[in-house]
Write a structure and sequence with these properties.
mainly alpha, single chain, about 0% strand
Length: about 170
Amino acid sequence: MSQARSLEPWRWLGVPMVQVLAATILFGIPLRIWGLRLPEPIFPMAVVFAWAVIRPSILAPLLVLVMGFFLDIYWGGPLGLWALCLLIAYGVVLAARPIMAGQSRTILWAWYGLVTATAMLAGYLFVWLDVKNQPGPLSMLWQYLATIILYPFTHRLIDMFEDADVRFR
């Protein structure tokens, strides 16, 4: 178990946000290896989950909104789609935070998978309503699998900052 770091907003909010947005841009490069494209996981989901588990914050929902709008603009989707989906995920985790406290890594990974599925299902339904045509479920499944594989990064962020603020233990 690692030593908890101080809870300065630039350290636990700013740096991870820049990292996931850079990873989104890197994986968005139209590169094909053996005819296959790189997966497009929802990198911001990792920090959205971690931020809600670490502690309630007034800045986190604003940054979640910014990351969602970035995803919408970068991927050319309807403006507000990922912002809303990520905010739903953040709200679910924040509401379930007392239940998650003190749980094992495996249980938190299951929660992460459930919250990711909730956000992606919401996005799936919103797109279906917007374009009045059902999106491809197989592509959503691959994106979901690529996103839940990111949990070790989420857990590392939680480990680094979870005990930094004793008011929210």
